[in-house]
Specification:
Strand order of the largest sheet: 1-2
Distance between the termini: 36 Å
Low-confidence stretches: none
CATH architecture: 2-Layer Sandwich
CATH topology: Nucleotidyltransferase, domain 5
Helix content: 25-40%
Strand content: 15-25%
Number of domains: 1
Radius of gyration: 19 Å
Mean pLDDT: 87
């Protein structure tokens, strides 16, 4: 990026100007990930309560957003500054997803506009959840979901620029 453009676009460091993607992975099950507006405790707790049964074991890192989960869940955390695994307590599965997602972002797509980020996340979640099948199996699964659906050029062009609004 040219220096003048970088100075105009990039303000601050860390999370400034970045979107937040939160993910949950059930061990031996499926991954769920969504773009969220805030990573505070109320937003994170709402996602967990919506997707995880009360009393289930929840393993996380030591982010303060997960504080208080032990009231309704069996919550244990790992401090990544000291360790990554403590017996069954680890976040390695979801870290694997983030690694693959970042590889997809940097290697295949290079740039994801914030408007389209949820679509890229959804695609990578599908790919991750279908990782034990081959390309043909994934292709058949996607094509099986298109039966009876029709997208005209007019529908595509009458959206807010995303091209996928209203297609659920």
């Amino acid at each position: 990026m040219h220096k003048a453009i970088r100075e105009r676009r990039i303000r601050g460091r860390g999370t400034v100007g970045k979107r937040i993607v939160h993910g949950l992975l059930q061990r031996g099950g499926e991954m769920r990930a969504n773009v969220i507006d805030a990573a505070d405790a109320s937003a994170i707790h709402a996602i967990i309560h919506k997707n995880v049964e009360p009393g289930a074991a929840v393993f996380s890192d030591e982010s303060t957003a997960y504080a208080g989960l032990d009231r309704q869940f069996v919550h244990e955390a790992v401090n990544h500054a000291e360790q990554y695994v403590r017996g069954q307590v680890h976040t390695n599965g979801v870290e694997n997803f983030w690694s693959l997602f970042k590889r997809c972002l940097k290697g295949t797509y290079v740039h994801m506009a914030p408007l389209h980020l949820q679509l890229y996340v959804t695609e990578e979640v599908f790919r991750f959840n279908a990782r034990k099948t081959n390309d043909k199996g994934r292709f058949d699964q996607v094509m099986g979901q298109t039966v009876g659906r029709r997208l005209t050029h007019r529908q595509l062009c009458e959206t807010d620029g995303c091209g996928f609004v209203g297609l659920e």
